[in-house]
Amino acid sequence: MSNAESPSANPVSKGDMRERLIIGLDVPGVEEARSIVTRIGDAGTFYKIGYQLAYAGGFEFARELIGQGKKIFLDLKLHDIGNTVEEGVRSVARMGVTFLTVHAYPQTMRAAVAGKAGSDLRILAVTVLTSYDDNDLIEAGYAPVPAAELVSRRAGQARDIGIDGIVCAATEARRVRGIVGPDRFIVTPGIRPAGSDAGDQKRVVTPGDAIRNGATHLVVARPIVKAADPRAATQAIVREMSEA
């Protein structure tokens, strides 16, 4: 472990698995998102707002949910010059959200750590997007670095800089846990219950496998928000996580 500041608290309470399931509100508007949250009720406590909803009224909706006692993961994947990232993170910190993502580039991560100083905001570094495989990295010019190696390298940099957690595919969670140690969050998207469609994700696992691999939080969107009964779908995933 480096001399960089590490997270001061246990990354997650293991008593209530609802706190470890982040429901991705990947929908085009606030009214649809509000309807989903209402239908889920107390079965869900933690919601992700990404680009699609954020730029369609999602920032104000995030404040609304926070006011109702919900937790918010703002998935913006910030990446810009250092000063811009630092000031942007400082503004997000004032909203009261729980998690914010940045891309795992060293300058960006250092700026994000500076911007969230003195707040309860936790910064998550995105290593390699779960929609990417080795061929995508080759196309982007990363050859001959495979996805697994790049994830490991960026996780180590995030640890040394003092980032609160890592976003990675659940297939990489066990290896990342060995790199970042026991006190950081590992948030895994690309989760699909057994038998569901993988969609555009290329590195997916089931909720139970993700927990067993060392993830602290799982992000699940389509299997819940597109379900005929989002509350029942949420409860089923929480149950699978608990059994793991």
Automatic annotation (TrEMBL):
Transmembrane segments: none annotated. One of its GO terms (cellular component) is cytosol. The keyword Endoplasmic reticulum does not apply. It is an enzyme of class 4 (lyase). GO terms for biological process: 'de novo' pyrimidine nucleobase biosynthetic process; 'de novo' UMP biosynthetic process. Its EC number is 4.1.1.23. Pathway: Pyrimidine metabolism; UMP biosynthesis via de novo pathway; UMP from orotate: step 2/2. It comes from the Bacteria. Substrate binds at residues 26, 48, 75-84, 130, 192, 201, 221-222. The keyword Lyase applies. InterPro entries: Aldolase_TIM (IPR013785), OMPdecase (IPR014732), OMPdecase_AS (IPR018089), OMPdecase_bac (IPR047596), OMPdeCOase_dom (IPR001754), RibuloseP-bd_barrel (IPR011060). Catalyzes the decarboxylation of orotidine 5'-monophosphate (OMP) to uridine 5'-monophosphate (UMP). Homodimer. This is Orotidine 5'-phosphate decarboxylase.
